[in-house]
Automatic annotation (TrEMBL):
It is found in: Cell membrane. Belongs to the DoxX family. Pfam families: DoxX (PF07681). It comes from the Bacteria. It is a multi-pass membrane protein. This is DoxX family protein. Keywords: Cell membrane, Membrane, Transmembrane, Transmembrane helix. The keyword Cell membrane applies. It comes from Rhizobium tubonense.
Length: 160
């Protein structure tokens, strides 16, 4: 008879059994909640970064200057990199917040994170690793039921 089948009261269990039972409670945390927190928190990080690059609808000269002097991405013109970055840091977080094209958005921002890690701030791997985990939760497990993606998938699965 396994632990799940026993009807022993908690008081009769050994200390390791009690500890294991408490740990089993963590299995009850729904992916929907984890995915929502991942989507919202990582979206905020990139949105805030994007906000530092724009003034209204225009990319700032300071953002272009940073791409020329500090970021120095290979193979990409600094003006173009600043504009693409500002767009991506607004567009993909917005999609993550509403839960539309979530896996694609997470993949795009994971790619951006890898570029930042490899070419710009290689010593910031603890931060970038944390970001990557948020993206991988969404990429591997989906955005959860609190998303437009879920409603679209549910709508199209009815006809199958």
């Amino acid at each position: 008879m396994n632990d799940e089948m026993t009807l022993e009261p908690m008081a009769v269990r050994t200390l390791p059994q009690k500890f294991y039972a408490i740990l089993r409670l963590l299995d009850l945390i729904p992916h929907d909640l984890i995915a929502l927190i991942s989507r919202l928190s990582i979206a905020a990080v990139f949105w805030q970064s994007g906000q530092t690059k724009v003034d209204g609808w225009h990319v700032t000269d300071n953002a272009v200057y940073l791409f020329e002097t500090e970021y120095k991405l290979p193979f990409v013109d600094p003006w173009l990199a600043a504009h693409i970055s500002a767009f991506a840091e607004h567009f993909f977080p917005l999609l993550l917040v509403i839960g539309f094209a979530s896996r694609l958005s997470a993949l795009a921002l994971l790619g951006m994170t890898l570029v930042i890690e490899i070419f710009v701030y290689p010593d910031a791997w603890p931060t970038h690793g944390t970001w990557a985990v948020c993206f991988l939760v969404i990429i591997a497990g989906g955005p959860g039921r609190i998303s437009i993606d879920h409603f679209i998938a549910r709508h199209f699965s009815r006809g199958i």
